[in-house]
Amino acid sequence: MDWDDLRVFLAVARGESLSAAGRALKCDAATVGRRIGRLEEDLGAKLFVKSPQGYQLSEAGGRLLPHAEAAEAAMSGAAEELSGAAGRLTGQLRIGAPDGCANYLLPQVCAAICDANPGLEIQIVALPRVFNLSKREADMAIAVSRPSAGRLTVQKLADYHLHLAAHEDYLARTPPIRAKADLAGHRMIGYIPDMIFDKELDYFAETGAGTVGLASNSVSVQMQMVRAGAGVGIVHDFAIPFCPGVRRVLPGSVAIARTFWLIRHADDRRSERLTRLAEALGQGVRAEVARLEALAAQE
C-alpha cells in the first residue's frame, strides 16, 4: 500500500469531499477521485459512501482510518528525526481554541513561544465550537470541558475564573447592585441560549440573574457589549485588564471557576515536537491567566 494513497484517503476522510481534499493536497478533485478509486481497487473494498452530505467512511474505510493515521504519525516522526526537528520547535502548528482564550490569552503566549523558537509558525483558529481533531482541523485544541470519547489525549492547562462585570459608566447611571436580587433591574449580557456549544458555558444558572437581554455566541462580542456600557455580563477575569473601565460586580457573591483542557490526537503522542509545544503552551497559559487575573482583582 502506497503512503501517498493513504494520504489522499485521509484528506477525503477529513474533508468529506473530493474538492476539500483537493484543496488540502493542492491538486484537483478529479485526481483525488482517481487516486481513491485506485486505492479501493487495490484493496478490493469500498472505502467511502457518497451521500448528499458528502463522502462518508464505509465500514471498511472506518477500519482503515486508524492504520492510516498511525502511518501518518510515523511518517511525521521520521521526518522530524531526519530533519533534526525533534529537538526544537519549527514548522507550522495550528491551535484551535474558544474565542475568549484565543483573543485574550493565546496572542501573547504564542508570541513568546515563537520568540523563543525562530522558525516556528503558529496559527490560532478561534471558533465558538468544539474542534474535530480526527479531521485535522487543528494540530491541538483547547476546550472548556474534558472530552469523554475519541482517540485523544487530554491534559489540564489551567483553571480560570469568571465574575459579573459592567462598565463604570453603566454602573454610575443605573440603580446600585448590592445583592443578587438587584440584578433583576439590569440588562444582562450573555450567550444565545440555543448556541451554547458546551455545557460549561451555561453560566447563568449559577448567577441567579434573569433572562439575557443582549446576547452573542462570541465571548469577545459579549465583552465589547459590557465595555460599551450596555449592561451586566459574566466575563473572564483574564479579559478585564484589556477593557479599561470594566469593573467586577458582586465578586464576593458570584464567582465561577472553569478549566481549560489541551486536547491532542492520540497518535501525536509520538511527536516530541508537539509534546514540547504542549508543554510550552501549558506553562505560558497558566502564567498568563495568573498574571491577568491578579490585575483584574485590582480593578
Annotation keywords:
299 residues, alpha/beta, Arc Repressor Mutant, subunit A, D-Maltodextrin-Binding Protein, domain 2, 3 domains, 9-stranded mixed beta sheet, two-stranded antiparallel sheet, 9 helices, 11 strands, 23% strand, elongated, LysR_HTH_N, LysR family transcriptional regulator
Overview of the structural elements:
- There is one protein chain.
- 34% of the residues are buried.
- Strand 1 (48-51) and strand 2 (54-57) form a beta hairpin.
- This protein is 40% helix and 23% strand.
- The chain is α/β, with parallel strands linked by helices and 299 residues long.
- It folds into 3 domains: 3-83, Orthogonal Bundle (Arc Repressor Mutant, subunit A), CATH 1.10.10.10; 87-158 and 259-290, D-Maltodextrin-Binding Protein, domain 2 (3-Layer(aba) Sandwich); 159-256, D-Maltodextrin-Binding Protein, domain 2.
- The chain contains 9 helices and 11 strands.
- Belongs to the LysR transcriptional regulatory family.
- Residues 1-58 form the HTH lysR-type domain.
- Keywords: DNA-binding, Transcription, Transcription regulation.
